[in-house]
């Protein structure tokens, strides 16, 4: 860090100040986090165990669920434990580490959602070439590219933050470490780094979202040439993906394309995409996907039968 820094620990303001409300929130958010880990973990296990879920769509879904677990785990465990403490602290290095992994996994998820949209485009618009275009090697390369893209995005965020001098006050007006609230603690003008962050996070999210919307417009146009049964199956699969995209991108675009603020509403929006959305994704994909539900029934049915036997 820069030599002018005189802060080693930061105080996190948190989501609510009332002790009773925090205890209620602890029970609620702990339940949500456990549901997130169990739900996404179940999808990862089911896809990797079930032979019927060997298509690229489910290959990407298993990685998306794995990223959801990691993404939620960068913020939620610390957030939950802080609900039981009066003074919530984090080291400056720990804060930077949380920012790095939060953005790394967040952008990896964005790129995976984009890859999944491309997979649906090829499956619906170029069905005769699907197995050739979406080979196992290509799928692995697309997943690896998502991880690499997330890493480079996040490392840029850290590189523009490291030179900043932080000299107090040391209170972050949020419930976890992110760039906007951290920049407010810098004792220098952060306009330039704010613009870089705007381009790197805000515009990246917008362009990714527009690419996803465009791909689904093309898919919907091409579905006109399919049978009624084919359209229904394709729309059911695409609808799940679109719901996840909207739930993830909506709050992210709302926060990162606006000037920094200290409104409680911003914290509540952040709660939605850091805590709630990762839990909803497995529910959306399983409730709307008969193949995943059938694979889960078969997998658990075999385990129950083996125990009985």
Order of helices and strands: EHHHEHHHEHHHHH
Question: What would the principal axes of the Cα set say about the shape?
Answer: globular
Q: In terms of structural class, how would the helical and strand content be classed?
A: mainly alpha
Strand line-up across the major sheet = 2-1-3
The main pleated sheet reads as: 3 strands, mixed
Level of helix content? over 70%
Q: Unreliable segments (pLDDT under 50, ≥5 consecutive)?
A: none
**End-to-end CA span:** 61 Å
Q: How many helix segments?
A: 11
Commentary on this structure:
The N and C termini lie far apart (61 Å). Helix content is 74%, strand content 3%. The longest helix has 34 residues, at 92-125. The protein is mainly α and 309 residues long.
Overview features:
3 strands; 309 residues; single chain; Olfactory receptor 4B1-like; mainly alpha; three-stranded mixed sheet; globular
Set out the fold topology:
Elements: E1 9-12, H1 19-49, H2 56-73, H3 76-82, E2 89-91, H4 92-125, H5 130-133, H6 136-161, E3 171-172, H7 179-183, H8 191-222, H9 228-256, H10 264-287, H11 290-308
Helix pairs in contact: 1-2, 1-3, 1-10, 1-11, 2-4, 2-10, 4-6, 4-8, 4-9, 6-8, 8-9, 9-10
Can I get a quick summary?
This protein has eleven helices and three strands, in the order E-H-H-H-E-H-H-H-E-H-H-H-H-H. The protein has 309 residues and is an all-alpha fold.
């Amino acid at each position: 860090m820069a030599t002018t820094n005189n802060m080693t620990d930061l105080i996190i303001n948190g989501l609510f100040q009332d002790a009773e409300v925090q205890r209620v929130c602890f029970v609620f958010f702990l339940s949500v986090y456990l549901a997130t880990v169990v739900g996404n973990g179940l999808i990862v296990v089911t896809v990797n165990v079930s032979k019927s879920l060997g298509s690229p769509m489910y290959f990407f879904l298993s990685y998306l669920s794995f990223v959801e677990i990691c993404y939620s785990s960068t913020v939620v465990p610390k957030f939950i434990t802080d609900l039981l403490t009066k003074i919530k602290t984090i080291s400056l290095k720990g804060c930077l580490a949380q920012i790095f992994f939060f953005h790394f996994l967040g952008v990896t998820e964005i790129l995976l959602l984009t890859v999944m949209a491309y997979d649906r485009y090829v499956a619906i618009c170029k069905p005769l070439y699907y197995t050739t275009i979406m080979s196992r090697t290509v799928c692995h390369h697309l997943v690896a590219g998502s991880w690499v893209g997330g890493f480079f995005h996040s490392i840029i965020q850290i590189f523009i933050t490291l030179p900043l001098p932080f000299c107090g006050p040391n209170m972050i007006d949020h419930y976890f470490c992110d760039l906007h609230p951290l920049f407010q603690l810098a004792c220098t003008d952060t306009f330039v780094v704010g613009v870089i962050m705007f381009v790197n996070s805000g515009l990246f999210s917008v362009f990714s979202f527009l690419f996803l919307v465009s791909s689904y417009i093309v898919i919907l146009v091409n579905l006109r040439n399919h049978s009624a049964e084919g359209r229904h199956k394709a729309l059911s699969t695409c609808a799940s993906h679109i719901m996840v995209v909207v739930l993830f991108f909506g709050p992210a675009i709302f926060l990162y394309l606006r000037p920094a603020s200290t409104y409680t509403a911003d914290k509540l929006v952040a709660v939605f995409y850091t805590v709630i959305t990762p839990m909803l994704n497995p529910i959306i994909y399983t409730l709307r996907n008969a193949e995943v539900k059938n694979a889960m029934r078969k997998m658990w049915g075999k385990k129950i039968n083996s125990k009985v036997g």
